[in-house]
Amino acid sequence: MATITVLATGLMLAVTLGDAEAKVPKTGTFPLKCADNVGSFYNPVATGGLNIASGQTNCNALGSATVQSITVVVGPSVFAPNCIALATLPDADSYAISSSGFFTYASANLEQCFFDKDGLAATTFAFCGGAAGDPVTSKVTGTYSITGGNINGNVVSGGAGTVNSSVNHCAIGTAPYGNSVKTTIVGTIVY
After folding, report:
1. How far apart are CA 31 and CA 151, in angstroms?
2. Residue at 4 is within a domain
3. Torsion over CA of 107, 55, 49 and 166, rounded to 10 degrees?
4. In whole angstroms, what is the distance from residue 21 CA to residue 126 CA?
5. Do the domain assignments include residue 109?
């Protein structure tokens, strides 16, 4: 009986010491930057109106991560005739994920503006057609809000910032599947 008591006491002491050494959860607001995000997306004509994008990035919170988003066109831009307004698909948040964890985010006010081979505002939607006014590149700008996540055991509760993308629609010669995208995400992440 004395041996069992000594063993039980030893186990309880080991558990107590283990708990004392447990990592303190990360809390607060920290800078977030995901740079050199390169990827591609499908044209919405081929996907029932969905812009499905994916890529690889390097985030200070996650290390090397895969990113994915689904956006929809919500109307023409109020700023210029060569632009459209985009938003994250409802109930399908975008995400960044790595072996360290993930965070999800949504955008409600993205704007995509199209430019021809000379860098002028595109006037047609005949992508990569070669005629004056045919879109060859575009820029996507807007903001995002972090909606959740878990990184290295720390619960992600919020954050916000900006998204900036440069798109080459003719990377492989023709649209819709020749799209190449480079994106930078900058802002904050809250644990």
Report:
1. 14
2. no
3. 70
4. 62
5. yes
Q: What is the rounded distance in angstroms from the CA atom of residue 6 to the CA atom of residue 26?
A: 36
What is the DSSP secondary structure assignment for residue 45, as one 8-state letter? G
Structure confidence at residue 177 (pLDDT): 59
Q: Are residues 77 and 85 in contact, defined by beta-carbon separation less than 8 angstroms?
A: yes
What per-residue confidence (pLDDT) applies to 105? Answer: 95
* In a domain? residue 10: no
H helix or E strand, kind and range, residue 150: strand 137-151
Are the beta carbons of 137 and 167 closer than 8 angstroms? yes
3-state secondary structure of 172: coil
pLDDT of 175: 47
- Residue 105 has what DSSP assignment? E
pTM of the predicted structure, to 2 decimals: 0.81
**Partners of residue 101 on adjacent β-strands:** 98, 151
Q: What is the per-residue pLDDT for 161?
A: 97
In a domain, 2, yes or no: no
d(C-alpha 36, C-alpha 177), whole Å: 21
Q: How many domains does the chain have?
A: 1
Q: How confident is the chain (191 residues) per 10-residue block, as mean pLDDT?
A: 43 44 82 88 76 90 94 87 91 92 94 94 87 92 96 97 92 66 94 96
Task: Determine the structural domain holding residue 102 and report its residue range.
Answer: 25-190
Dihedral angle computed from the Cα positions of residues 121, 45, 68 and 186, in that order, rounded to the nearest 10 degrees: 20
